[in-house]
Amino acid sequence: MRYLCIIYDEEKKLNAMSKADADTFMSEYFTFTEAIKQSGHHLAGEALQPVQTATTVRVRAGKVSTTDGPFAETKEQLGGFYMINAKDLNDAIQVAARIPSARTGSIEVRPIVEFDQQ
Amino acid sequence: MVDAVYRSDSRRVLATLIRLLGDFDLAEEALHDAFTAALERWPREGVPANPRAWLVSAGRFKAIDAIRRRARFDRSQALLAERLEAEGPAVEPGDDEGVEDDRLRLTFTCCHPALTSDAQVALTLREVCGLTTEEIARAFLTTAPTVAQRIVRAKGKIRDAGIPYEVPSRSDLPERLDGVLRVIYLVFNEGYSATSGETVVRAELSTEAIRLGRLLVSLLPEPEARGLLALMLLHESRRAARTSAEGELILLDDQDRSRWNRDLIAEGRPLVTRALLSRRFGPYTLQAAIAAVHAEAATAGATDWAQIVGLYDLLLRADPGPVVELNRAVAVAMRDGPAAGLALIDAMLTRGDLDDYHLAHSARADLCRRLGRATEARASYQRALALTRLEPERRFLERRLREVS
User: Fold this and answer.
1) What is the pLDDT of residues B152-192, one digit of tens each?
2) Residue A9: partners with Cβ closer than 8 Å, 6 or more residues away
3) Which residues in chain B touch residue A3, judged by CB atoms under 8 angstroms apart?
């Protein structure tokens, strides 16, 4: 099954990290990504620019409205994702638990809808 | 004969069918079809040598047939039927161990932490214990449609999120086992000390919880699984003695100990000992050890309170919390006198930890009563009375309140 592991982190905490800590964190991400490529779990994965670069777009009554930032102020922000291939939810949970941000923020694990199989 | 097999084996057959078919609803349908076939054929052809294997195999063929019929409309169903057929029957005649493993797998699936706590309890009672949704609804004072909806949602999540039918890997086992133990203990407690309503005891839930506990210990003999089973057995041993014929609550001190069930105590005590000796025990084992000390005392006066306080000290370290602290304070009152216990409870109430907990106020009232401080006792009984929702407890508190008035 395919799962999207959605990474939520506190940007404030990340920004407050020392250069050395931030480098360690990044290298943990590289190691993790390499490991799930080796194990065959990895399908895709990206990190996002910080939340202040975000734009929210809505269309209401045919009119496009564009606003700054995400629609809600939350403590943790969407910071990136991995799309993985896992045997089942337990397998996916084990992968998600190894994402470095699982220790600082949280990871939402969501199964992908496979339209062709339904 | 079919009836007897249904009662003893239908849940085992279901667990295996769920694993083979990978789908709860399909498995339940197959179970139903298999028993229908048994009703037709066993009286004519005789009961097969291994009824359970016969039922699993009949259920599997019925399910493949059912999928084939659907396949006329849906190509992917045809592939599923082919796959199931190619896999062949996974149960060999007499493969009891495999069948029991299926029940353990199913228990871990039903208690998966990705499901809500309510759903875990309902699903375990429905799928592993075989209770009907009506029985579950009655036990938890809710409606059958609510329970049914909870179960349908949980099954949907198991299917869509890909929750597997497996016993977790060694690295995940301790945490996942905690989840299973928690569900079993919730079921037991709901049967032993319901949180609201007319009757204190809903015996059948406790019986189911003990059955699950025994199953778990036989399949996965971990210390805390033993500890939990022991705890349930030792509590259960006092069931007959803890309410009067009129349904009034009788406290431990006042219980007729000759009415304690010696068989359950004899089953529970060695489990505590084994769990303690493992040195990998936790809160359930410690609570069971405390229950065992009570069980060993021939009279309330002979209770080894020093040992109980010592066990509460360990429990407070393993599982810190105000309720444990309150129980420890009551034990200290028994060891060192009511004034010592009262000081501890008052300190807790001052901290504001247990102000809404009726048992904290009734414990305080009881200690004040024993110290002859009637006014304070009255105030605390009244506060406890205002907070309790259970009828027998209310009547008990009202009785006590009249005594100090």
Assistant:
1) 999 999 999 999 988 888 888 888 999 999 999 988 988 88
2) A76, A77, A79, A101, A104, A105
3) 162
For residue B24, give how far its alpha carbon lies from the nearest alpha carbon of chain A (Å).
16
Please judge whether A88 and B160 are an interchain contact, meaning their C-beta atoms are less than 8 angstroms apart.
no
List beta partners, residue A4: A83, A110
Residue B76's closest chain A neighbor by CA? Answer: A117
Token pair recorded at residue B105: 């797998």
pLDDT class for A72, splitting at 50, 70, 90? low
Choose the mutation target among A1, A84, A87, A90 for the interface with B, i.e. most B CBs under 10 Å. A90
Asked if residue B320 lies in contact with residue B336, where contact means CB atoms within 8 angstroms, the answer is no
> Does the pLDDT value for residue B93 go beyond 80?
no
pTM above 0.90, yes or no: no
Query: B190 vs B35, which has greater pLDDT?
Result: B35
HEC secondary structure over chain A = CEEEEEEEECHHHHHCCCHHHHHHHHHHHHHHHHHHHHCCCEEEEEECCCHHHCEEEEEECCEEEEEECCCCCCCCEEEEEEEEECCCHHHHHHHHHCCCHHHHCEEEEEECCCHHHC
Q: Could you give the CA distance from residue B359 to residue A104 in angstroms, rounded to a whole number?
A: 39
Encode pLDDT of A101-115 as tens digits. Answer: 999 999 999 999 988
